[in-house]
Amino acid sequence: MLRGFYTAASGMIAQQRTQEALSNNIANANTPGYKADQTSLKAFPEMLMQQMGGKTIPTSNSFNLPVQNPIGPLNTGVYVQEAAPNFIQGDVRETGVSTDLALVNGTLPDEAGALLFSVQNAEGDVRYTRNGNFTVDGQGFLVTNQGYYVLDQAGNTIQTNGMEFTVTEDGLVQTEAGESVLGISYTDDANGLAKEGNGLYNGDADAVPADATYSIQQGFLEQSNVDSLQSMTRMMESYRLFETNQRVLRAYDESMGKAVSEIGRLT
Question: Where in the numbering of this chain does the Flagellar basal-body/hook protein C-terminal domain appear (predicted)?
Fold first, then answer.
């Protein structure tokens, strides 16, 4: 019976973590470039239940031979194995703002691959983002809305000297002071990237391979790829499953209470 407690409790914990991921997705449904987290559940290893017994051998000493009769497998609950971002392209919306850049996927060599903007966080480390909602700071550098520098292909900051600049479809940033190529990075395993908040990802990414294609659209933004209706439906489903496990746990608790009080009183 105690195993039933752990199985029901593990189901509640798994659904709670699923709810947290779905809630975060819905909260960022309007965040440009946001990639929805997808949780995957995995069962704990199964246990083979066996009945312990014995068989008496008809000998002069009545030898007792231990016997195990298989009953069947027992599942021991589930857990959230991972919460990986879904890098499917979001809708592209026109904003008319020159600092807004949308990274539109073309052909990628790997289904699990992803293209990202390269930026520099507050500690000076290279991070990646799909949020092209950029702006220009007081010194004329192209930055994210959180103040992180947008990098060029060489890993340097981009000086635009104001809002008047042009970005071509292949990522060439043209200003009065000169030209630079927007830093676009590629990873063949987007699931290996870790979210750091503020739309930033940490992980391994390299230069864009020759067989990958993309385009930069200035004055456009990639929207979040969260399906709000589907997320709400999944939240309701997860909540119902949580309630079901809660009722099972309550039933086990009541049965245990009766076993302690009534059986104890009879003995």
Answer: 217-260
